[in-house]
Each structure stands twice: as C-alpha cells, then as structure tokens.
C-alpha cells in the first residue's frame, strides 16, 4: 500500500457509494433523515478530488488529511464516524510511505476500533460497526493471502450488514422507534458493506 493505492481504493469505494446513492437514501428515509446516500457520496467524492492533487507521501498524514476532508464534506453523524475511522488508520500508518498488506489490514482494524472507542458503539447495535468490524477481522485473519482476505472481508461485511435486519437500533434517530427498526436493514451497515466491496474490487482489478 502506498499513496497511489490509497487513491485507487478510495476511488473504488466512492464508485460503489455513488452507484448506491439512491438506495442509501431510501434506507435512511425509514428511520433516519434521508440524507445518508447524499452525505456519503459527497464525502467520498470530495476525498477523491483531494487525492488528485495531494502530494503527501506519508500514509499517516495523507489519510488523516482525507479524514478532515471527508468530515467537512459529509456533515452528518456517519460523516464524523467515518472520519474517526480515517484517524485510526492514519495513526497506525504514521511515518510509513509503504505498507505491506498485513500492515494495511491491521490499520483498517485500528480504524474500526477507533470508531468503536470514540462513538461508544459495539457490534450488535444495528450500525456500520456490524459490517466493518467483521470485515476488518476477516481482513486481518486472512492477511497472508491477500486475494482470499479481500474476498473473506467483503463476504463478512455483507453478512454482517444483512444481520442488522434482526437487530434493534440503539443509537441515533432509529433508536427512538427501536421495535419498529426490527426487520429493516441498517443503512450505515450497507455503507460498511460497500466499503469492503470497494476494497475487493480495487484489489481484484489490480492483482
């Protein structure tokens, strides 16, 4: 992983979010305020634009800057949560211009752990964590075989997102109607699934 692959991965994630923008809006209209697809699409597009001219090669500094751009461009609770993820990844990669697949996988997990610590959320609470935590775990567990790792991570994130249908919401606006949230897919978890789908698409296309 280096500056160029960061650009490629973010572009691939951005493409997945853009394709599913309207679907994310629909999901968010059920229990949220309906802006999920718009804010996520705006956030990732802004980071893609930023990376076109960014000259920083230190992965930690580069990814920290990405988080700041995202937070400013996606003013929403999930925008802030995503920025926490960027911050955690940045800290893990500080001072490196190149990272092995294992180091990159560990950094992704550090990003997820930073979100959990800062947002006070755990798996099983019907949030993005239900997709990205199992995704990150699978990435780390299979890191010696990158092709298998991205495949396993994408599947784990998709399964985790699907499982949110059976959960009661604990956080955010959806928690006000917790019982009504059962049977409904969590929009944030779908974003999490799309992040790992984007990582897989990038890796598959470039290896």
Report on this model:
This protein is an all-alpha fold and 207 residues long. The chain has one domain: DhaL domain (Serine Threonine Protein Phosphatase 5, Tetratricopeptide repeat). The chain is 71% helix and 0% strand. The protein has nine helices and no strands. Helix 2 packs across helix 3 (36-53), helix 5 (77-92) crosses helix 6 and helix 7 (129-141) runs parallel beside helix 9 (187-206). The radius of gyration is 16 Å and the shape is globular.
First-to-last CA distance: 13 Å
Low-confidence stretches: none
Helix-strand sequence: HHHHHHHHH
Overall average pLDDT: 92
Task: Give me the CATH superfamily.
Answer: DhaL domain
Structural class: mainly alpha
The main pleated sheet reads as:
none
Q: Portion of residues in helices?
A: over 70%
Number of domains: 1
Tell me the number of helical segments per DSSP (H or I, 4 or more residues long).
9
What's the total count of β strands? Answer: 0
CATH architecture: Alpha Horseshoe
Query: What is the general shape?
Result: globular
Short description:
The protein is mainly α and 207 residues long. The chain has helices at 3-19, 21-31, 36-53, 59-73, 77-92, 101-119, 129-141, 146-163, 187-206. It has one domain: DhaL domain (Serine Threonine Protein Phosphatase 5, Tetratricopeptide repeat).
């Amino acid at each position: 992983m280096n500056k160029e692959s960061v650009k490629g991965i973010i572009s691939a994630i951005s493409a997945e979010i853009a394709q599913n923008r309207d679907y994310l809006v629909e999901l968010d209209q059920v229990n949220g305020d309906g802006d999920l697809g718009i804010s996520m699409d705006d956030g990732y597009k802004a980071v893609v634009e930023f990376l076109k001219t960014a000259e920083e090669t230190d992965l930690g500094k580069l990814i920290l800057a990405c988080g700041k751009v995202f937070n400013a461009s996606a003013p929403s609770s999930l925008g802030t949560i995503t920025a926490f993820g960027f911050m955690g990844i940045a800290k893990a990669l500080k001072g490196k211009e190149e990272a092995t697949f294992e180091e990159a996988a560990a950094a992704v997990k550090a990003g997820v752990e930073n979100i959990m610590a800062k947002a006070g959320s755990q798996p099983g609470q019907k949030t993005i964590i239900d997709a990205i935590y199992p995704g990150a775990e699978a990435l780390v567990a299979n890191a010696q075989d990158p092709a298998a790792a991205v495949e396993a991570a994408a599947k784990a994130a998709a399964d985790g997102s699907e499982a949110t249908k059976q959960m009661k919401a604990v956080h955010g606006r959806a928690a006000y109607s917790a019982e009504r949230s059962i049977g409904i897919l969590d929009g944030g978890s779908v974003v999490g699934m799309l992040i790992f789908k984007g990582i897989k698409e990038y890796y598959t296309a470039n290896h």
